[in-house]
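Folds vary. Our protein:
___
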Amino acid sequence: MNLPKLGHIALIAALACVGAVQAHAQGRRLIYVKNACQRPVRVIMLHTDSARGPKQQGWYYFNAGEESYLRSAAGDKLTQIEDQPLYAYAETTDTKARLHWQGDGPEAKQDGGLYRTMPMSIRIDADGDILTRFTCD
């Protein structure tokens, strides 16, 4: 290619940007949640799918043993940037003594309440998705 020196620099910069965008996109994974508790729970999730920081989604309702991908209100599967923490607040919804999953993560405001989220333990499952679980053991 016969480009002036400035043209080479611009081309290299453009290719670097494309590579960064591809690498960034590869770091996003779908979020899959399992309720491994034998009680129903409701969940608020704070997930990060862009450089703008965490987005709040919820309430999600899971019956005992239920599992699924998290979806937006529009029905799109939610993604999480792989190297960012995933936060959640959850609580049981049955008539027994209420259990809470909460911690020192960011606060979530929902339905007039203020909830303290916790960082979730995650792993990459066989499908390449981010898997997180709620247990009541």
Remarks:
- DSSP finds one helix and twelve strands in the chain.
